[in-house]
Amino acid sequence: MVVLAALYCMTSSVVAHYTKSSPYPSQSGSMDTELSFTKRKALLCSSSLMLSGLSWFKSNSALALQVDELQQQEERIVELFQEISPSVVFIKDLELTKVPKNSAQIAALDDENAKVEGTGSGFIWDQFGHIVTNYHVVAKLATDRSGLQLCKISLVDARGNNFSREGKIVGYDPDYDLAVLKINVEGDELKPVTLGTSQGLRVGQSCLSIGNPYGYANTLTTGVISGLGREIPSPNGRAIKGAIQTDAAISAGNSGGPLIDYYGHVIGVNTATFTRKGTGMSSGVNFAIPIDTVLRTVPYLIVYGTPYADRY
């Protein structure tokens, strides 16, 4: 439309001056001068309009490109959540009033029949029912001698069906704040996470966290990797080195859940957040155990029940 308007401007100016010109020869020089001047004006008019149209086209194209990139980014986040959330579990730490007689009683337990002492997150490690989480999420169960501590795990199978199972401690390593639980998956098909690597991570790289903060199941938060090679305290007071710092929100209940990159790979286990003194509010400085550390630790916990260092 802009180009057509420019052509119309040029044509109408020329025609207008032709109709106003004198038929007498003595005025031919004046007519030629006027016509030449008119053509220059028309060309300037058309050039200005075409440049304006080009500028408008470029600015709107850039805006459309930005909107398209934003939509693609949002769609990617939605896809990642839909893909990974079935692999994230909700862990409830329960204290019973009496020891249950069988697994059926355990499956029927609800919050009214048992005291919920804490909640946390975890993720499906393999199709055999192994669940990885933080040690501090299941510390009471790991050290229980009364039989009144119970870990109830709520999850989704590969077909999208919700169910709950009792989680049994397989092994734990307080030094790295890691633990492995196992559930009975007979007749159920699970969807394990896709494991990545923490090597080659870069500050500024986008990441996501999925967990159950404050008991709100399947919560997604996004952010970036804020720092690498951090040192944080473990539950037994020792230092966990090489932790990933992120500004993706990690709150109470997120512990044990996965930190994920934009390829959908687990790059860490969400573990800790610094809180503002006296408020309990998150400072936005959050930490995850790098997945390479998890990959070195979890297989020993599954096979031997203890970390490699405790075998000798």
Description:
32% of the residues lie in helices and 32% in strands. It contains 5 helices and 13 strands. It has a 7-stranded antiparallel sheet. α1 (2-20) packs antiparallel against α2.
List the helices and strands and how they pair.
Blueprint: H1 2-20, H2 28-84, E1 88-96, H3 103-107, E2 114-124, E3 130-133, H4 139-143, E4 149-156, E5 162-166, E6 168-173, E7 178-182, E8 206-211, E9 219-233, E10 239-246, E11 258-260, E12 266-275, E13 282-290, H5 291-304
Antiparallel strand pairs: 1-2, 1-4, 2-3, 3-7, 4-5, 6-7, 8-9, 8-11, 9-10, 10-13, 11-12, 12-13
Question: How many E-type strands?
Answer: 13
Unreliable runs, pLDDT <50, ≥5 residues? 1-29
N-C termini distance: 81 Å
Helix fraction bin: 25-40%
Radius of gyration: 33 Å
Helix tally equals 5
Shape: elongated
Output mean pLDDT: 80
Portion of residues in beta strands equals 25-35%
Class per helix and strand makeup: alpha+beta
- Read across the widest sheet, the strand sequence of neighbours is 5-4-1-2-3-7-6
**Main sheet?**
7 strands, antiparallel
SSE string, helix = H, strand = E?
HHEHEEHEEEEEEEEEEH
Briefly say what this structure is.
With 312 residues, the protein is α+β, with helices and mostly antiparallel strands.
Task: Pick out its properties.
single chain; 312 residues; alpha+beta; seven-stranded antiparallel β-sheet; six-stranded antiparallel beta barrel; 13 strands; 32% strand; disordered N terminus
